Amino acid sequence: MIYRYDKEMLEYRKVNLSLIGVKAIGSVIGLAIIMSLSTKPDYDKIDNLNDNEIEIVLSKHNEFSQTKLIERIKELNFKFPYIVLAQSKLETGNYTSNMFNENNNLFGMKQATVRLNMASGTQRGHAYYDNWTESLYDYALYSATYLHKIKTEREYFDYLSQFYAEDTSYVKRLREIITKENLKSKF
């Protein structure tokens, strides 16, 4: 099951899977298992807290760090996790852009209209998310929908240059980040 955090009610709610196409269901099931296990804080520890304390615990749980991002990328079992990490670094200006800080958007994603997505809406022409993990999960859903047949690094980069990025030097810049920061060694 896929859950979305409802910050108004401070609880997770099931996402309606009837909107998913039959092709994407198999790819999404693995993601859903990871999401249902890894995005929920330990409720046993917060059962006896008041609302303000619960919000602090949930906020701390969703606090961003590159280390947490790498852990989540590993959990989601991307084919080329170092490329995903490089994309997040490039798209966010090393996690300093307004798109990331205001929209929690790691990948410059627009809100999807055809596939299942985790976006809470659109702000400044891009999807916004309640927290950074939802942005990562949305990219995982994107990958499950559009990149599942890709087998090689070259095919992945070709796809990104043809269908994902508007910048003609996008792939070159990703490769530079991967090499300069030795991102392959993190996975």
Explain what the structure shows.
Helix 1 (22-38) runs antiparallel to helix 7 (132-146), helix 4 packs parallel to helix 7 and helix 5 packs across helix 9. The model is unreliable at 18-30 (pLDDT under 50). Helix content is 53%, strand content 7%. The two termini are 27 Å apart. The chain has 187 residues and is mostly helical. Strand 3 and strand 4 (126-128) form a beta hairpin. Strands 1-2 form a two-stranded antiparallel sheet. It has helices spanning 22-38, 43-46, 51-61, 66-76, 81-92, 98-103, 132-146, 153-164, 170-180, and strands at 3-6, 11-14, 121-123, 126-128. The chain has a single domain (3-186), classed as Orthogonal Bundle (Lysozyme). It contains 9 helices and 4 strands.
End-to-end CA span: 27 Å
Q: How big is the Rg?
A: 17 Å
Number of helices: 9
What strand order characterises the main sheet?
1-2
How many DSSP E strands? 4
Q: What is the count of structural domains?
A: 1
Strand content: 5-15%
* Mean pLDDT score: 81
The outline comes out as: globular
**Helix and strand run:** EEHHHHHHEEHHH
What's the multimeric state? single chain
As a percent range, the share of helical residues equals 40-55%
Largest sheet: 2 strands, antiparallel
What structural category characterises the helix and strand content?
mainly alpha
The CATH first-level class comes to Mainly Alpha
